């Protein structure tokens, strides 16, 4: 038997086993194709961007560790790395850009364009590339790594000058998002995360939150049709340098977004480790139209390790599928790891997310639901456990080969080749 035949044979056997559980595998494959994941551009260059030579990630509660060779130093290098990553991920997906990844004739580079005068043209190169590759784009204002963020406060600063600067920045980023979304024919999600907070115990917790609310209201005086862009707001529990107080906490944004009809962004690394993000989804979707997820992997103090198949991710995937609310949930990834091949980290994470979603699509939900309805919690748990050894691998391999991407571990060698031919040469 040839390789393709083996894959097809295993798939047919798997289909048979799933059918006995009442699961339609072909239908699962039809649905997995509709899942579009937004990849974080910032994984390719350690969250640095192209604003000026020797830019650094500073002042903002997030940190990248590692110095693995091959970091993308220009937009062209980053796009090349993304092309490589996307070629190893089945399906059509999105790219999440930060404003600091703009380009433009001599404007970014030696004579940097500051963030309060950014324009759509600085992102034209990205839009052209995305259009060509059939990739959709999402966008983020960058409210960190900037002298105006040095105090630890941006939109919630007590300084009117600082607030005005960041309000203008975010307004421009929303306008840019709108134009990107219109150009590519898919609403561009503009997500706002700000680092504002304090390392040690604050006296006044109220004023910065009040100021953030005012700044946001000012930003959102400009409205855009949903067909071009959608706004989302991302909370956090704590960060480096904001251990005692984060202005944009979960409660802050839950209240703000709900009352202003904005989308909420839940980052899987931004909650207490024993809190379940999966459990929040059904509650939030009763009161919000849509929801954005930043899938990530928290480990101790770090909320941003590359994503792997783990119970927390599987629980989220199960919730997205079982609830039938897939259309209202946007899936983005958020991590940055400079200690390993950066392109490989994108692929690991996107494939892990897709495998988790596929696994959710292959769960025997009807049988599980029946056991729950009968109050037979033993049978429910037993079936959940047994479903973990169903032949999902055969279905995944088939899906990959159907989509023309390497199945199983075959893509690892492609990454290694790319590393020796391209990435290693960058540091020479
Ligand atoms: C930070 C947030 C935010 C960032 C990106 C770079 O804790 O998760 O989403 O990771 O904007
Ligand atoms: Zn995030």
Fold and architecture overview:
It contains 14 helices and twelve strands. The protein is globular, with a radius of gyration of 22 Å. The mean pLDDT is 96. Helix 3 links the parallel strand 1 and strand 2. The protein folds into two domains: 88 residues, no CATH class; 327 residues, Alpha-Beta Barrel (TIM Barrel), CATH 3.20.20. The chain is an alpha/beta fold. The structure holds L-rhamnitol and zinc ion.
Number of helices: 14
Report strand %: 5-15%
Q: Describe the largest sheet.
A: 8 strands, parallel, barrel
The CATH homologous superfamily of the largest domain is termed Divalent-metal-dependent TIM barrel enzymes
Q: What is the helical fraction, as a range of percent?
A: 40-55%
The structure class reads: alpha/beta
Please tell me the CATH architecture of the largest domain by its name: Alpha-Beta Barrel
List ligands, each type once.
L-rhamnitol, zinc ion
- The CA-CA distance between the termini, in Å, is 45 Å
Strand order across the largest sheet:
1-2-3-4-6-8-9-12
Element-level helix/strand string: HHEHEHEHEEHEEHEHEEEHEHHHHH
Number of beta-strand segments: 12
What are the main properties of this structure?
alpha/beta; 428 residues; binds L-rhamnitol; globular; binds zinc ion; 12% strand; 2 domains
Short summary of the structure?
The chain has 428 residues and is an alpha/beta fold. It folds into two domains: 1-23 and 364-428, no CATH class; 35-361, TIM Barrel.
